[in-house]
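*** Fold description ***
***
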Amino acid sequence: MKICDLNLRLYGITIIINIMSFLVGFFFAWTSPAIPKLKTPNEYNPLDHVLTSEEESWLASLMPLGAATSTFISGYAADKIGRKSTLFFSSLITTIGILLSIIATGIRYLYLSRFFSGLGAGTVFTVIPVFVGEISEINNRGILGCVMVLAITLGIVCTYIIGPIISLIDLSYLQLSVSMTFSVFLIMIVPESPYFYVQKDKYNNAYSSLRKLRVCDNDRIVNEFEEIRKSVQVSLESPISLGDILKRTELFRGIIITCSLVMFQQLSGVNVILFFLHSIFKETGSTISPDSSAITIGIVQALACTITSIFVDRLGRKILMLISCIGGSLSLTSFGIYFYLKETNHNVTSIYWLPILSIVFFMIAYSLGLGPIPFVVLSEIFPTGVRFLASTITIFVCLLFTFCTTTFFPRLIEFIGMAYTFWMLAVFCFIGATFVFGFLPETKGKTFQEIQEILRAP
């Protein structure tokens, strides 16, 4: 298939879709500035008591729990009512969660708010990678697939910068404005996936949608439309169930690869670091303030994600994942060394810079591969008929590990200490590198059919 010219229209539509991802970044980072505020008695604290350690753990873990709950619903809904409609209803659910945080008068309101925010986040992780993969072209599939993680990162950065200097209720109003903006732009500008329309035998709608997504001449659009129609027709003629995934070599290998990638992504401890960033840096005793450290790391992560989006279609997925896993392992090891020295009563004032430098390098490494690449691969390696089922399974595994890591992190620190906790995460990153080296195929510049042949090969 011939490649269209630079498609700024498609880039703009992808950015609009990922306004919701930007909002999810707010949700992920919310605990970092919020927990210190909730632990301090003041007139802006909606609680009638100081936040306890158990409540802190639940505030962090209820969001991934809500996200894991919504993966199965959103995957099913995306195939039944469409990708666009599912995202719209997801924005309504997140709005409910935000409103609960605005009217919160106790911890239960905040628990519900975090859970509803998680329901919306689960839809983002399940639907957006597939949606963007379906509307992308071969030459920009990698860079567009990275936009989701970049948008999440920018949301995190905004929360790190703004969160410490405004009240929690003002932060909620800011989230509400983002949610409403997304809903309006989604309805007015974003077309439905042509794949979904073809699945529903709405060929005129599918062709019209494709024309809105392309800047090619009409002949190229017609050719691509025929390829989409044939791809969907093959999938509909041979519907794929969960049992088929286990039986067919290419699908089973695909699900093992995507589930393993997101598992190592979460076992790197990234969400532990994001959720508890202020608390972690407070524990270091560094002379650099936790707020400044968090802002610096957020900005570095955003820049690294931008670099990845530029090079992912040039260098490829595999090499970036290898660099990411090895770099993450080394960074977490040095972070653990600092805490080991501190916990064994060594004088660490001369290396006050080591914690922030270690986490900065970890975020750079994570953003090069572990962050965006699993979602790019997820959008690439499955045929139309199994895409959402595979996405649902993969994202459920991802969020299940997110819930486990954020729930048990505070308890793990109490049991084995900060140093050994981060060394354990470093080991997981190294194991991830060996998996990538041995099992991840390169998907750069390949069609769905070519990728399936690679997975099918002995």
The two ends are 28 Å apart (CA to CA). The CA atoms of residues 195 and 228 lie 7 Å apart. Residues 196-234 form one domain.
